[in-house]
Specification:
Blueprint: H1 2-23, E1 38-47, E2 52-64, E3 70-75, E4 82-90, E5 94-97, E6 105-108, E7 112-119, E8 122-129
Antiparallel strand pairs: 1-2, 1-8, 2-3, 3-4, 4-5, 5-6, 6-7, 7-8
Length: about 130
């Protein structure tokens, strides 16, 4: 009976050791989860033909949508939202908007959000941190 208890004890110990080792993951990249979602605070701005909004005390709330590569940006201060912007991973922990140019880009990393987005005569800007 002692031998059976000893074997059962060793089996349980091995089971828990294997479970603990396989449940750990060193390759969990923040770009693959909701790491970038949240509120970024700093300067925000918006311009179109009739409207000009600028604030050094604004915020942008970033949410990841179901596609996994697209994000929505909800601005404070009555600035219209940007929705469904697609991103690619660049480097280890940075997302850059698909189709970025020198005059139109959105870049997110673990601490910063930078936006200069121009579309249909409208311009959104943000220089925020969290």
């Amino acid at each position: 009976m002692k031998k059976a208890i000893r074997i059962l004890g060793l089996f349980m110990l091995m089971f828990f050791a294997v479970t603990a080792i396989t449940s750990c993951s060193d390759d969990d990249d923040p770009a693959n989860n909701d790491f970038f979602a949240g509120t970024y605070k700093g300067s925000v701005g918006y311009t179109d033909g009739d409207t000009n909004i600028n604030s050094d005390n604004g915020s942008v709330f970033v949410t990841k949508i179901a596609s996994g590569t697209k994000y929505n940006f909800a601005f404070s201060n009555g600035i219209p939202d940007l929705n469904g912007v697609e991103f690619n991973q660049q480097g280890d922990n940075t997302l850059v908007m698909v189709g970025s140019t020198a005059t139109s880009y959105i870049r997110i990393d673990n601490n910063e959000l930078k936006i200069l987005y121009i579309k249909d005569g409208k311009s959104w800007t943000a220089n925020c941190t969290r």
